[in-house]
Amino acid sequence: MKADEAAFSPEAIAALLEGRHGDPFGFLGPHHDANGALVRAFLPGCSGAEVIARSDHRVLARLEPVDDTGLMVARLADAEAYLLRIDWHGTVQETEDPYAFGPLLGEMDVYLIREGTHLDIGRCLGAQAMVVEGVTGVRFAVWAPNAERVSVVGDFNSWDGRRHMMRKRLEAGVFEIFVPRIWAGERYRFEIRGAGGVLLPQKTDPVGRQFELPPSTSSVVADPMPFVWNDSQWMRERADRQSAGAPISIYEVHAGSWRKRWDDSVDWQLLIDEMIPYVLDLGFTHIELLPIMEHPFGGSWGYQPLGLFAPTSRYGSPRDFAAFVDACHQAGLGVLLDWVPAHFPTDEYGLARFDGTALYEHADPREGFHNDWNTLIFNMGRNEVVAYLIASALEWLEQFHIDGLRVDAVASMLYRDYSRAQGEWVPNRYGGRENLEAVAFLKRLNTVIAERVPGAITIAEESTSWPQVSGKVSDGGLGFNFKWNMGWMNDSLFYMGENPVYRRWHHDKITFGLMYAFSERFVLPLSHDEVVHGKRSLFGRMPGDEWQKFANLRAFYGMMWTHPGKKLLFMGGEIAQAREWNHDAPLEWWHLDHPLNAGVHRLVRDLNHLYAREGALHLRDADPGGFQWVMADAREASLFAFVRWDPDGKAPLMVLANMTPVPRLDFEIGVPHGGFWREVLNTDAAIYGGSNHGNYGGVTASDEGRHGFRHSVRITVPPLGVVVLRPDV
């Protein structure tokens, strides 16, 4: 038979043995002709093998070795379904032949992958444990359009890239194979020969949904059983709980260093048992997790991820993470994730030059390499990469019920010259510095999320004056729900770090932010970035002696929680931790044994409850009519006074802040209503560790007009303190 002779040519066998055969399905498996079927199997190291009938296990033929190549051949008289019975030197394995299965990906999947618009590749590519033709196993599929050959390797084939060479779907650049009789828990990688036959380092799965515990790096076949959710009430209410007028107060957390057991361990169950009740008690509405996508280097805090579809195995399985989200929702807490679509690490087993070419990244380092972070930049000009990233976002929002994504490093995506000198960047097609492809990606991302996951939100970490970050895409905006107010954060931290004697010279650091406070829907972030790299903790940044440090921090929180914008506080800030955050160590919980630290903790709780209770503090966060300066120019006294208005104007709050250590006694200020004004919060109260300068529960307004109002009150404004008054109406 000439066809058989060609198939058995030295060149074909050499290509098989060297793992460079371009058409493994055209050579291995069953090949039917007028005489029945010729079965070829590559089984290096076995001591014998037979072909048996799948129906009744009768022996159909013995596989005969071709010299000592590992290639074995049998002729079947009739074409029927069969199994391979393989003797591995005393251990007998019975299995279906992976090369007996036809193409697996559906035509629509192939079409969408080819088009670069497949947004559900988490359910399509990667490792999918499933049943095919009544056989349990795992379908592997990976996009590697420029590869000459791709194999899946693992414990199931002794990591031999010649054993499971994959079928290339030429029309989509995808390789696929079904490996029978393996299941969830199997470790695997992809072995790739790139263009020119160059053998690349083994690669982990770009769409892997589970990974080994670092520092090991193999992908793991995930459990296909769906998680049973019990959060239907939360999901029904989520859109209202996350609207622009909702009280959103976020507790930002690094999961691995919040708290640990005696043996230094931490997992999702610990956080279910201890973090959820703690955060609830403090009155936060959301937990935001620093990136928990699988990442090789713990010191990156998750900001250099490689597994964009997988929760890190450091804290448990994907099901364990889902259980954490479900428990949060049942307790009434939202869960936000930091998500990093801007860049990825250069580890050779990851996405870098995945198929031997710049596949996910730009080839030109002026576009494709971040000098600041030594990472590679996703190529937003490639449809398949855009689809890959959007599919990752949908994986978290749809499969894990995540309530929102905080998108990291948006500024670095928007500008081609971000952190680059002249000549080190490539202009856009109009000669400008804007990254048009990244802009299109962000608009597409937010449009898809709004359509497919109503009620979920996106938050931009964006530090420039790019217009309409939280504007509607239909109006020319980027489509985010909220934007971090980095200007407020930088200005307010600078101001609070100054000795009160010098604050008069920096009064505008507080007032300037209200010039643009309603240009976007803002989150006020006191994040992890402000308590690392020698910046000191929030407490450590406050000036003065111990008492003044605590008083300054309390006043800062009082100003933050009454300022327009949603709130975000990184863990440890609520206990006034003295040292910087260390990702290798838990928070110093013993601080709460100190009365002044315990006072800050109690203040944060009361601020959150006040914020949620008083509509004036949240309902008009994005409405300039919800804020009114009463006293913005008391520079010499470092005093501030403003009103936060509720929608109908009947229950406003008057806020007064004294940023010096000198109490202001019998201070007269205009108020918009007559009658009794109740002191609903005083950061200098003794219960918070303050000096207890206050107003004995409240003050009664006189008919003497001040500051444009028809009424006024005389009050005590405590030293380094914030007072909040509410009319009894």
Return the structural class. alpha+beta
User: What is the helix tally?
Assistant: 15
Low-confidence stretches: none
Strand content: 25-35%
- Termini separation: 99 Å
DSSP summary, beta strand count:
36
- Side by side, the strands of the main sheet go 16-17-20-24-25-26-27-28
- Share of helix among residues? 10-25%
Shape category: elongated
The main pleated sheet reads as: 8 strands, parallel, barrel
Mean pLDDT: 94
Q: What Rg, in angstroms, do the CA atoms define?
A: 31 Å
Can you characterise this structure?
The chain has 729 residues and is α+β, with helices and mostly antiparallel strands. The protein is built from 15 helices and 36 strands. The protein has an 8-stranded parallel β-barrel with strand order 16-17-20-24-25-26-27-28. The protein has a 6-stranded antiparallel sheet with strand order 29-30-31-36-33-34. A 4-stranded antiparallel sheet has the order 1-2-6-5, with no helix packed on it. The chain is elongated and about 110 Å long.
